[in-house]
Design brief:
- This protein is α+β, with helices and mostly antiparallel strands.
- The protein has 12 helices and 11 strands.
- The chain has 2 domains: 119 residues; 144 residues, no CATH class.
- The protein has a 5-stranded antiparallel sheet, with no helix packed on it. Strands 1-2 form a two-stranded antiparallel sheet. Strands 3-4 form a two-stranded antiparallel sheet.
- Strand 6 and strand 7 form a beta hairpin.
- Helix 1 packs antiparallel against helix 2, helix 5 crosses helix 7 and helix 7 runs antiparallel to helix 8.
- The chain is globular, with a radius of gyration of 20 Å.
- The N and C termini lie far apart (60 Å).
């Protein structure tokens, strides 16, 4: 395997580029030592510098070809970190003025990243890692230029999204999984069984279209049945726990509960720990029989 230094173009003047903390002259050294281990401190440092809380910098884009090279060298099971960092850089809309869309400026790199992500997604080891599967699927969407879901699909693993009611603007927590399947305005719903809750209305599989259908079919094909099940709730509907208005749950903002730590090895990309319910089969209740149109009829 080539050393990372062999992947870094000598034409790149890193000292003239900037990241979150100033000059980027330290980036080549960090890229050199960042390996397949997602817990490597080098990845923390790179993420903090190159995609700090979703903001990217000139050095972020200069690092893309190197991240592609590292992902290419690593096996399908080991390339997660360079793929996820590259995806966050590509998907970010908080970039310096005058910087072109990386999907255009780095079209060749983006195309290769799509192939590398596809290969990683097909690896059998993901059968027991739904959270990592979701993160890689999100990365693939980012490389393809899919807005919103190229940055937010990872919320599936947290089994909770925050959705503002379009009628009264109340913040609803849309919960699906370990704690039940409901919407509520009570942020402490996991600690108390009481509180006003409204049962979710998952989308009928036959009603899924476009990206929703594509993601659902893919998850089933890849043997990710928990992910497929969660997608019917994300693309379903819910009643506001405050005013009873019906809204689509896909108009969401993922909530980030950081208790217990993250899973992607970076303080700037922390993830909710994978709930136990993703490993425990849930009895089918028939809840998927209602599509969005049918919900309106029963409202």
């Amino acid at each position: 395997m080539l050393r990372a230094s062999a992947l870094i173009s000598p034409m790149t003047e890193w000292s003239q580029l900037t990241h979150a903390y100033g000059t980027a002259e330290d980036v080549p050294g960090l890229l050199e030592v960042a390996g397949p281990d997602p817990e490597s401190p080098a990845w923390d440092e790179l993420w903090s510098r190159l995609c700090h809380q979703g903001t990217v910098y000139p050095a972020s884009y200069a690092a893309l070809p190197v991240l592609v090279g590292k992902a290419r060298q690593l096996t399908a099971t080991d390339r997660t970190m360079p793929l996820l960092l590259a995806a966050s850089i590509v998907a970010s809309t908080d970039r310096p003025c005058g910087i072109p869309d990386p999907k255009d400026a780095y079209a060749a790199e983006t195309s290769e990243l799509i192939e590398l992500a596809e290969e990683a997604l097909r690896h059998p080891s993901l059968a027991d890692s739904p959270e990592r599967y979701v993160e890689l699927l999100e990365a693939l969407l980012a490389f393809e230029g899919v807005e919103v879901w190229g940055e937010e699909l990872h919320g599936l693993s947290g089994e909770e999204f925050e959705v503002p009611c379009p009628a009264c603007e109340a913040e609803n927590f849309v919960v699906f999984g370990e704690y039940g399947y409901f919407s509520t305005t009570d942020s402490l719903y996991m600690n108390e069984a009481t509180g006003h809750r409204k049962e979710l209305q998952p989308a009928a599989i036959s009603s899924l279209e476009g990206l929703a259908k594509r993601l659902h079919v893919r998850a089933l094909t890849d043997g990710q049945h928990k992910v497929a099940d969660a997608l019917t709730y994300i693309f379903g509907s819910a009643y506001c726990a405050e005013c009873d208005a019906l809204f689509l749950t896909s108009t969401l903002r993922p909530t980030r509960r950081l208790a217990g730590g993250g899973s992607a090895g970076s303080p700037d990309r922390q993830r909710t720990p994978l709930p136990q319910s993703w490993h425990t089969p849930r009895p089918y209740t028939g809840g998927m029989l209602l599509g969005v149109e049918e919900v309106h009829q029963h409202a």
